[in-house]
Every structure is written in C-alpha cells, then in structure tokens.
C-alpha cells in the first residue's frame, strides 16, 4: 500500500470574501445608463438625450454620496440587495423596472433625516427612469 503524503498548509480555513464597498449599487447604476443608451440606439432625439443626460448626472452624484455612507452600513445594504432577483424576464424594459425596484428597496435601508441628499437623488433617478419608459412606450416616438 502506498501512503499519500499530506502536505500541511498554513491557509486559514475560515477566510471569507467580503464584497467591495459599492460594488453592487455602483455597478447597477452604471448599467442603467448603458441600457438606456442601448435602447435608444439610433433614435437619438432631444427628449431621449435630455433624459439620459439628467440620469447620468444624477448617477454620478449618487456615486459620490454613496461613498460617504459608512462601510458597515453599505456592506449590509450590498449583501441584502445582491440576494434579490429584480428582473424575472430577459427583455430590457423589465430590467429598467427591476432597477426602479432596486432603487426603491435601497431607500428602505436609509433614514430620511440622515441621508436626505442620497434619497433625493434616488427619487430623481426613479423619476427619470419612469419618464424614459413612458417616452419609450409612446407611439409617437416609435419608428414602425
């Protein structure tokens, strides 16, 4: 019988990977702009450009404000929000509705008095997304 040598390692068995601060929320916010520009495609009219510009400015401001949230609170929020599946379908419109749900759920974790600025920015992003979906569904902007 051959004996196998067991090599002893000094690796820590309880190592856990903690997510980086801002990974989920910042990535999702950047995906919003990418999906909006992809949906518009060649139909770049002034109303779509205005909505996308407002949303990108709000998202940049959101990222600045989000970096000021304490590490333990943001890690807790990131862990909870990353567990939820927001879009059940694979089409782009359901992804936009999923981002609206994500932003609404993000507001649950923050108090209105302490984080008034970031919650106001989230409301603006929500309004921009809903306006974008409304204009996208409007028949006068479709090119059939």
List the keywords:
globular; 144 residues; 0% strand; mainly alpha
Oligomer: single chain
Which parts are unreliable, with pLDDT below 50 for 5 consecutive residues or more? none
Structural Rg: 21 Å
Number of helices: 5
The structural class is mainly alpha
Mean pLDDT: 81
* Global geometry: globular
Strand content: under 5%
* Strands, total number: 0
**Helicity level:** 55-70%
Question: How are the elements arranged and paired?
Answer:
Blueprint: H1 23-40, H2 46-66, H3 71-82, H4 92-108, H5 116-137
Walkthrough of the structure:
This protein has 144 residues and is mainly α. It has a domain of 96 residues. It is built from five helices and no strands. α4 runs antiparallel to α5. It is globular, with a radius of gyration of 21 Å.
Summarize the structure.
The protein is an all-alpha fold. The protein has helices at 23-40, 46-66, 71-82, 92-108, 116-137.
């Amino acid at each position: 019988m051959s004996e196998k040598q067991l090599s002893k390692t000094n690796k820590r068995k309880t190592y856990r990977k903690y997510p980086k601060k801002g990974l989920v929320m910042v990535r999702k916010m950047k995906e919003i702009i990418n999906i909006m520009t992809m949906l518009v495609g060649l139909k770049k009219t002034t109303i779509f450009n205005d909505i996308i510009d407002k949303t990108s400015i709000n998202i940049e401001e959101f990222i600045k404000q989000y970096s000021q949230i304490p590490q333990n609170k943001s890690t807790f929020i990131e862990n909870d929000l990353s567990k939820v599946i927001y879009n059940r379908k694979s089409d782009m419109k359901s992804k936009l509705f999923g981002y609206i749900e994500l932003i609404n759920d993000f507001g649950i974790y923050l108090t209105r008095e302490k984080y008034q600025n970031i919650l106001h920015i989230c409301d603006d992003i929500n309004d921009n997304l809903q306006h974008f979906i409304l204009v996208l569904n409007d028949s006068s902007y479709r090119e059939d």
